[in-house]
Amino acid sequence: MPLGAALLNRHVARSCGRLWWDVPRPLVHIRSASRAQTGTRRSDEQSWDATVGYLPFSRASIGSFFQQQPELKNPFLEDALLRGYLKRHLPSQEVFSDLSTFGERVAKEVDGWGRECEVNPPRLLHFDPWGRRVDHIVTSAAWKRMKDLSAQEGLVAIGYERTFGEWSRVYQMSKLYIFSPSSGLYTCPLAMTDGAAKVLQSTGVSWPVEEAYSRLTSRQPERFWTSGQWMTERRGGSDVASGTETVAIPQTDGSYKLHGFKWFTSATDADMTLTLARIQDRTGATTPGSKGLSLFYAEVSRDKDGLLQGIEVQRLKDKLGTRQMPTAELLLDGLPLSEEGRGVASIANMLTITRIHNSISAVAAMRRQYSLARDFAARRTAFGKLLKDHPLHMQTLSRMEVETRAAFLLAMDVGRLLGREESGLASQQDAHLLRLLTPVVKLYTGKQVCSLCSGCCEVGTQIPSVLSHTSSFHFFIPQVLSIWEGTTNVLSLDVLRSSSVTNFLSSLSPAVKAIDSALSELETFLQDAATRKPAYLEQAARDLAYSLARIYAGALLIDHACWKGASHLDTYAALRWCEQDLCVVAAKQRTGCYDSSTASLDAAMVYEQPIQA
Predict the structure, then answer these.
(1) Which of 30, 105, 428, 492 could pair with 545 in a Cys bridge, judged by C-beta atoms 3.0 to 4.6 Å apart?
(2) Which long-range CB contacts under 8 A does 528-537 form with residues at least 24 apart?
(3) Rounded to an integer, what distance in angstroms lies between the CA atom of residue 544 and that of residue 134?
(4) What residues make up the domain containing 125?
(5) Can you tell me the distance from the alpha carbon of 458 to that of 68, in angstroms, rounded to the nearest whole number?
(6) What is the DSSP-derived secondary structure letter of residue 121?
(7) 216 and 235 share a domain?
(8) Where would I find the Acyl-CoA dehydrogenase 11-like C-terminal domain in this sequence (predicted)?
(9) 171/609 Cα distance (integer angstroms)
């Protein structure tokens, strides 16, 4: 018997002797202080005299039980929907082998890097030891490994090599879908890199951007570049037409000097960037509005003394989340890329790409957190049985699975449409769908991921810590997905700018009998809204976008359930999805939600003043 335990035994026996005087003294077990295995109880127990009372803990008060945490397994092999989707549309052994190998590496190695990126966020070194201004953004070794990995795995290159034709984008998005939750947010600079490559490609690759395009799409780590996206100024937000104050001063050699302040620059450690500015004429005047904006290409370089050329880093942003990626306030200069006055039009291709990336990251987060919650249900015991044996718990997880499936099919279909457009195979309807669905899917998945990740916290109390430990995906990241690349309201209004809304939606009706009613309601709403003032449809824009997303997701779920390799669970998912109110805009219209009087009532409610005593 250890000395400490013997003394404790003797002390307790003396102090409690009167209580146990006439009571039989059965043996009880007191555990030793050796470390217990996770999710188990220690077996190295010793029997003690009952005069000590019942002491379940020895030396420490934390007890012996530790809940097993969910295990991250190969995300490709564990995802039945992803594998089924690819088996149907891209049945390539090369693709399956690559994704399986990559999935194993993500689970065993890359996920740890993502955690390292989170616990070692970037920091800004303004001055060197001798007082010279250097503005070095210091990032972790794991962040640098993510860059090398991205090149080696072709996470941008796949979309431009087009080895698999119109399905190359689906292949690329599948790989990003596996990578994103473990990437330590490195998918953000990859999205902007992909977007920049698309812009350079669409404007015609010539010097000096030919070299940049080659580097952005390279598989060689030593050549691979990432791109920033430096648009936001102090006036901020999606309204870049009125918010951009940076000016471009023409130089004698044909280049420009940019003078201005960028309030929020994403991926500040990038090798190059695209940014907006207004060109000054000889009198110093600029053209206001979107017509006065031009897009500029700028390399991020240093002189022979290591000083940034034309860029001064003011500070890194103190953000609520997404701290893994450096975001800063900058003063900068650069080189021209687009024609004068074509800035906003030039970045349209970038926005398409980055919004699709955003959707993929949202869906990937949904799948990862759902998978962890599902695994946790097989490890956590409550009320005498595992969580997976509680029907209500399984019902909750099942509903999450339906949401995740719908989001996945929405995001992948936009990737499919992008691939068709880039391969020259897109019909006019495909082009309209891509234009419409890109903001709709970004909007809807950005909202879905917030709801589902919150739900995962409820179905497993360990999930919040898992978000920053096992999955390396910070809990605040889902919140930013609904904001970045256009808020929900901005994207809803973007939907309205798409043409021929009703034409291609009605063409879905033969394949989606289960949503015929929703399509009819949508058509009736649009016909009625067309006879009203523009403000009516603007008020309905948010609900209209939600309706489009739900109806189209239902069509995709039904379509996926109809292919020969589908399972009965694919049918079940489609049926469950279509149980909800698919056309919320029609339901809200019936209650008078968009009538002219509601706008003033909404404003009055928001700014209601307290009654004075």
Answers:
(1) 492
(2) 528/589, 535/596, 535/599, 536/594, 536/596, 537/496
(3) 50
(4) 80-223
(5) 17
(6) -
(7) no
(8) 505-607
(9) 55
Least confident interval from 288-302, 399-413, 524-538: 288-302
Q: What is the CATH number of the domain that holds 322?
A: 2.40.110.20
- Specify the pLDDT at position 53: 57
Q: By C-alpha distance, which of 176, 138, 449 is closest to 316?
A: 138
> Which positions ≥6 away from 146 have C-beta within 8 Å?
110, 113, 114, 117, 183, 184, 186
Q: Residue type at 399?
A: R
Shared-domain flag, residues 184 and 92: yes
Residues 6+ apart with CB under 8 A from 303: 309
Mean pLDDT of 457-469: 54
Same-domain check for residues 111 and 207: yes
Q: Which residues pair with 123 in a beta bridge?
A: 138
Q: Which residue has the tokens 């995001």?
A: 411
Q: Are residues 133 and 266 in the same domain?
A: no
Do 217 and 117 share a structural domain?
Answer: yes
Catalogue the E-assigned strands of 62-220.
123-127, 133-138
In the DSSP assignment, the letter for residue 180 is G
Q: What are residue 467's phi and psi, to 5 degrees?
A: -60, -30
Q: pLDDT at position 485, please?
A: 57
How far is 179 from 485, CA to CA, in rounded Å?
21
Q: Is pLDDT above 80 for 253?
A: no
